[in-house]
Amino acid sequence: MPHVFVNYRTGDGEQAATTIARDLSHRFGEGLVFRASESIQPGQLYPDELLAGVRRSDALLALIGPGWLDAPDPARPGRRALDDAEDWVRKEILEALMEGTLVVPVLIGRRTERLKAATLPQPLARLAYVQSLRYDHQQASTDLGRIAEVLSELVPGLEEDSAAEPSAHPAGDGSTANTVTGDGDGHIQARDITGGVTSTVIRDAHGPLNTGPAAQHVHQPHLEGEGATYVSGDNKGGVRHRFGERR
């Protein structure tokens, strides 16, 4: 089966890597997408697993964020990480190029510019001439669909599951993840609902509840007796207490 390797730099593209990898796994099938932090199991040697993951892949997505090019080398202050022959982002890309694997740069965000050969280490200069894709979380659905479409066209045997439903994207990536579930008895649980919703009605066994900006109408049982607490019908009068005559 064909595999896709997601190459990224920690601190620059891990959130996008998570979103893209999970979306592709949802579309193409579990186990066909390699992302280091999720695909390497405890106890495994990561250098061996990383290179093995690249070698068995049919495509490598090189995720390039705004700080990718000039990310500092943590071991050598004042030097770029890309200039270190042992930098894993660099090693994975070069391994893919040596294996003849399809390498597709994915520019993260609207402001990340295309690479220029003059700014890259000489072994990576080829990346500047490779047609790239773009992933922007503000149009995640469109961009994720385009990435999947290109991989389907360029990687023989990689087919999207037509029965798969659109996946939800992590909110930490800037995308919106809407989850609405029901229990069959009229109770609805909703989480992380965002967007231009002006009014939502959630119904349960006690009656409708309007969550929109309009006047709130709360339907409660009629309460009587001393010390009874109730909410006015239009929710404008606050909470009221009813007491009988002082004894």
TrEMBL record:
The keyword Secreted does not apply. Residues 159-191, 224-247 are annotated as: Disordered. This is Toll/interleukin-1 receptor domain-containing protein. Gene3D superfamilies: Toll/interleukin-1 receptor homology (TIR) domain. Keywords: Receptor. Pfam families: TIR_2. Residues 238-247 have a biased composition (Basic residues). InterPro entries: TIR_dom, Toll_tir_struct_dom_sf. Transmembrane segments: none annotated. Residues 4-133 form the TIR domain. The keyword Transmembrane helix does not apply.
